[in-house]
Structures are given as structure tokens and as C-alpha cells.
User: Fold these one by one.
Assistant:
Number 1:
Amino acid sequence: MTPRTIRSSTLIRHLGEWRRPGAGAAYRQLAGAVRLLILDGRLPLDARLPGERELAQTLGLSRTTVSAAYGGLRDDGFLTGGQGAAARTSLPPSRNPGLTRPPADAQGEGADVIDLTAAVLPADPNIHAAYARALERLPANLPGHGYETAGLEELREAVAAGYRRRGLPTSAGQILITHGAHNGLVHLLRLTVRPGDAVVFDHPTYPQAIDAILAAGARAIPVALPDEDGEEGWDVEGLACACRSHAAPMAYLVLDHNNPTGRMMRAADRLRLLAAMKGSENLLVLDETLVELTLSGPPALTASAVDAPRMVRLGSMSKSVWGGLRIGWIRADRAVIQRLAQSRASFDLGVPILEQLAAVELLNDGGSGLAVRRPLLRARRDHLRARLAERLPDWVCPRPAGGLSLWARLPAPISSALTQQAAEEGLRLASGPRFGIDGAFERRLRLPYTLPEAELDQVVERLVRAADRVERSGRRPAPTSLRPVAVY
């Protein structure tokens, strides 16, 4: 694998306004800014940074200043390579905690445990009625063998109709029904990726997607999302460059709304991305599980009506309706759908008929279920942000345009330690590094706002106690021997 090279222009864009008058020597400020970029995952690990002379000229500094900054980063374990050799990003062993889970004594079920590892809502009030109607319609399907490789025709048509309402002409032949969006991604990886191939993705991203990419034997190539306050953009040039330089057969992106950040890519950036990848053989896979959960600003459905032949979309009812309804789908070119239908027989034999019939009932409700849920989620999002600002004012919690969670920025790289301490307070969390690779995002924490306000108040109080324990004990996360926690 060829490590990624960070160009001077890219590094400067990430650094932003890194130098402040009266904040100390320039080399210390530069080293601190680069260190933060590494900890936050905006600079991938084992990436080659610009040479000292090149960076000094670009920043208008002396080479001595840049050399001192790089030297300090090497001493602290954030860069490898001796002086005169290429500087590559790294993490000190104590800052590379891997994947964490709550201690064993906090994993049992109990009324006093609040679980925030799943950003999901309880079942839609219409779920039971939909299953009852589906059960009434089931006898009409019993004479058949029940193996619908691509899915029931009426469900595929209901899904296709949803895309048409978004301005994306779609037929039932372009839809394959799956066991949720994750299952759809696994099918696409099996069809498209071979061991050793690169898969590019936006960083941070959905943890189970990273797990699926690695399980397929692929090389996970992260492209960091810009992380400035209020910044909603994607590194479009970085995504296209990573796809080309690694000859990646697939890119997996969550543009509406990114899990965990909640941000949404603008329509203009989507067009720029398609233009930058024109002529590429890369399959662009868009996970749209959260596309209908816009809470502020223009709907994501409007921006997402940008299409291309090699663009594949994953959809699901798990976030907008209920996680227990394992219904998802793939929208793609007819030829891709046919190949997927043929290849899935060696992996699974289709989706249960009853669940598909229930999904038809729910998709044909005219959007009434989501119309009730959006105001509820909006109120809970704003409530959680207000309580965090009151009780933990040094945490930065941007207001996401949609989705189901906040992506909080912590005052120090303590996410794994905080997760462990919170478990002792009866609060299950997914630490920041669970949403990236190589130990990134120790200064980040995903906080779902799907619980009622009273429970969110308890969440904040337990976070306050956990943060206080971390500060008093000075604990750092345990080594990489901890097993991963499932995150939804």
C-alpha cells in the first residue's frame, strides 16, 4: 500500500488560522495545530507531510521554525521518520486505543442503564397496524415458493416511486430489496471489491461500514471531512484524488446526513464530485439511510437528486421507521441489479415476505409517520445542545442539519477514557475512535438525541460525573485489547 501524500495546499486548508498573536512561539503553535489535526482524524495516519523546506516557503516561515515543529511532533510520537527523512503522521501508543466497549459489570440489562450506542427511535406507531395488514395479505403469496431474489415487485415499485418523487426517474427493475442498508453494502463489496482493493470513504463514518470494508479484505482509505466550526463541505478534491491514486473500485459516502456528524453535502459539491470523477470506473455508493431526516434548512431530498450511471444508492427503513424492520434496498443500473440478484444466492436467499408486505404498507403512508417524527427529533436535538452548553460549556456541539446525533468536540483527547468512566455511571457510549480508523477522533463523541428529554437530562448529568472522574483521575484509555462495541 502506498501511503497518502498530503500536499501543502491541503495541509494549509486544514490548518486554517493556526497562528495567534501572543499564543507562544510559532513552532509550538504549528506543532499544536498539526497534532490536533492528527488526533481529530483530519490527517490520516501514515500520511506523508510536506517537506520542511516546502512547508516553510508556503507558510512564509523559516525552515528552522518548521523543523522545530516537526521535531517536537516526532518527540511526542505524532510523526515518524528522522530529520531529513519523510515525515509521516502517527499516534503515540497511549493515544491509539482502538475500539472500546463498556466494562463487563456494566453490560447487563437494567432499568438504570441508558444506552447511547444506538442512534435509533422506537417503532413508528403505525408499525403494528402495518404488520396486521400485511398478515391479512400474506395468503395471496403462499401459493408461490416465497424466494424473491430481487424482492417483491410491489415493494420494489413502492421504493422506485419514492425516488421518482425526489426527481430521480427509477423503475422497479433498478431496485434490489435487502436486509437493511448494511446488507446492501456487503452485497456490493462482494460483487465489486477483491482482497487488497482500496475503498475510499468519508472520515468519520458509520462504524459497521468500516467493519464491512475490512471484512471484505479491502484497504480502508479515509478522506477527512473539514472540521472547522460551521463548515459543511466535503474535501471533494481529496475524494477524487484518493479514488484515482489508489485505483479504488468503490467509494462509500454518507452525504445525507453523515453519521455521526449529521452534515449534508450541498448539491453544488455533488456536481463538482461527479465532474472530478468523470471517466472513472469507481462505483460511487451513497448511503441514504438518513436522507429523510432533515431537521433544519432545505431537505436533503432536494440536494440528493443528482444522478450518474455509476452511482449506487443504499436505502433503509431502520432509522426512519424501526430498526427491527430489516428492510433496505439498493438502487442502481439494471445491469448492476441483475448481477447482484445472481450473486446473492450464495450469500442469502432474499428477505422474508411478511416484512416486505409490511414495508409496502409503511412506504405508502404518504409520509405521515415522518411528519410526526421530525418535530420531535428537532426538539430533542435542541434540548440536548442546550443542556450540554449549560453543564459542559467547554464542549463544542455544532447543530446538525439532520440525522439522529450530535458530534461533540471534547476539550481534550479523552473520548475512550470518558466512555469507560461513563459506563461506570450507567451510560453506554460509542467513543469517537469507533467512527474512524487508526485511533482517530479521541476528541470526539457521538451523542444521539433520540431519547425523551427527561432521559437526555439524565444523560448529561452522567456525562458531567464521568468527565469529572476523568479529569480527577487523569485516566487514559486502555490498550487495544478491548473488543469493539456494536454501534447502530
Number 2:
Amino acid sequence: MSSLIQNEDVYALCDANSFYASCEKVFRPDLKDKPVVVLSNNDGCVIAQSKEAKALIELWMCRPWFEIKDDAKRLGITAFSSNYEFYANMSNRFMTTLRQFAPRQEVYSIDESFLDFTGVKRDWIAQGHEIRETVLQWTKLPICVGFGTTKTLAKLANHCAKKMPDMQGVCDLVTMPSKQLDDIMLSLPVSKVWGVGHRLEARLNELGVDNVLRLKRADPKRVRDKFGVILERTVRELNGERWLSLEEMLPEAKQVMSSRSFGYRLSTLDELREPISFHASNAAARMRNKGLYANAVYVFVQNSPHDEAEYYGPSLVIPLPAPTDNAMLITNAALWGLKMIYKKDVYYLKGGVMLMDLVHAGSQQTDLFGYSKQDDKTSNLMTAMDRINNKYSRGTIKLASEGVNKSWAMRRELKSPDYTGTWSEIPTAYC
């Protein structure tokens, strides 16, 4: 029996493999077992690769697309622009599918989720394969599953499941014999531990801690004195002590951000007004969805730091007289801030709006001059906008200052259809 079984805590980390690239294959059976890459905003560089693409060349991550475009064509690699709407819908399907397997779930990222099996006794290898097969059948997404008695060990187990082919996508560190577990930890660099980045890895290596097993066997008190309480907890978790609990609810947002690179460089104030209006309205809608009000609006624009021209990236915080969730008031504040920071003869590549110092409706303080008093007509207008946009699609109803054509929108020349979110793009099956 493993020495790790000190309690009944069992966590599973379920992680989709090459999530963006895998999503692009779901409705494209012709791409099964074919190399696929996904590009960043404005089709700038590679941000995701399928396993087949990684097998061809490992060093394409973050490489500019224009540099490797010809090589990709020669190698038969299919490229896609980022389709964030589609990925979000596929993530929701993935997380909903996982929810049936455990009493508690923590959605950790768009493609990762922790499941809490505390108090449940199972054959974890069999359970992992059941999860994988169900997710593949229901969503067509390939995943790996790792089990551990702590979240840190579950994260490590998931890495093993993904990188060690003999495990067939499932790793169980809960019942694994101690000798086998130590051998695996000995073979893994310390950077494979959750929370150990490059800088921390370098500091640990200087002290001779160059693999996971050595970190596990380190004295927690000495680790705390040298590196702080966070790494101490990591060491204790590697030894089976639970220090990180499952977070079923997302932490309350302190700010809401909406920003994106432009499809081409903008230089005039009129050109910039449309994307800034869009981001202000978009941030306000997301904030209202959380039942929050903003006390300040932050607006920024910038040119590319890689341009030959001098970098210019101004920003401004506009305090509001009182908290509000009114998209019109927020947009007016953002546009006023844009006017203050705008500079002629600059070719701007990116801009955005952040709503700051958020509070709940019941926590807001009214102002003396009635700025925060939102009449029923305005409140009903915001509610109607949100309902229509939620029912159909974002932008069905919008402020006039956002413009109509969105010529400034980021380039996505290789974008796939929004198979799961737009009626006109739903795939058609012919018999």
C-alpha cells in the first residue's frame, strides 16, 4: 500500500489535450490524426499545436506565422485563427460533462477542472478511463486524468498521464506503491511541480533540488524560511498533506477588462472611438452579469512596442461620482478619457477598457447630485439589452458609438465557423 494514503481525500485533475487545436478537429473529421495549429490575435503567431504538429516540429509555439507559413503548407499543417466563442462553448460542454462524476468540481481554467472524490472509494484507473471515454463520446475532446490525495499531486499525476504513453491517459498516485511513485518523482524536473516557475526552479537547482523527489523530501520549515509559506505548502502537499482546498465558487471580481488588438493600425480619434466604445459596453455587460457596479473606468491605447516609432502607451483612470452599471455613462467616461490621452501621428495597435473598484448593488453609496440614481427607464433599457444579446448574440443591440462594420476588429482570416453558437454556422449533415 502507498504511504500516501493518510486520509480519504482524493482529487482528480481532468485536462483537455491541446484544447484549442482539439476543438478545431471536433467538427472536422477530415483532420483526424492531421497536424493542426491555432494562431493568436490578428493571426500573429502560433499559440496551440495538436500532438501531430508537435511531432513534426516542437519549436513553433510563439513563432510568427508569416515566418513559418510556407513550411506549414509544405508539411501539410492546417492553421486556424483563434475562435474564442467556439472554444468557450466547447469548454462549457466539457465542464458540464465532468460535473456528473463527482459531488464537487472546481473549474480551474478553460481546459482544466478539479473533481473532489473525498470519501469515495473507487478503482481510480477504471474511473479515469470512464471519464475519458465519456468526455470523448459526448464532446469529442481527448483528455488526460490524474488522481492524487492533494491538488498538487493530482496536477503532477495529470502531467504523468499526458507525458507517459504507457499510462494511456490516466495516472493514479493515490494507490501507487511508494517505490514506483518515488521513481517517477526522481525522473521529473522540479519545474513540473505546480507553482514552480523558471526563476524558482533556478534557485532550487542552486541548492541541489533538481527533481520532484528532492523537493518532496526537503524540510518544510527550512523551505519556508528560504522561499516562503507557498512553497512550504507545496512540499507538504507533495507528501500527502492537504493544504489547498477545492474552490467551487470563483473569487469575486475586483475588476472587469475588455481589450483586444486592432485588425489594423488606427491613427485618428474618430477611428479609436468605435473600439473603445465597444470595449466599454462589453465590460459593462459582463459586469452587470455579475451583479456589480463600477467606481472607476480605466482606458488605454498603445502602439506596438516593436514598431520603429517611439513606443506610446498612455492610460487614464476616470473616477466616477458614484458606482454605476449604466453602459452609456461608462462609455461616455471612457471616451472622455480617450480624448485626454490621444496623441496625433501615432499608429495605435491595441486599446481597451477596465472597470475598477467593483461593488455589489447593495454596497454602493449614493451621491449628493443624483448621478448614481438610475431611473426605471434606464434600468429597463440595460436589462432589455442584456436579454436580447444573451438570447441571440453579442452586438445584436449596441450603442451607436460602437459603429456598424467593425472594420477595426482583429484579423481572423483562417477562422473556423462558430459551430455551436451561431445558427447560420451550424454544420449541416446530408444523407
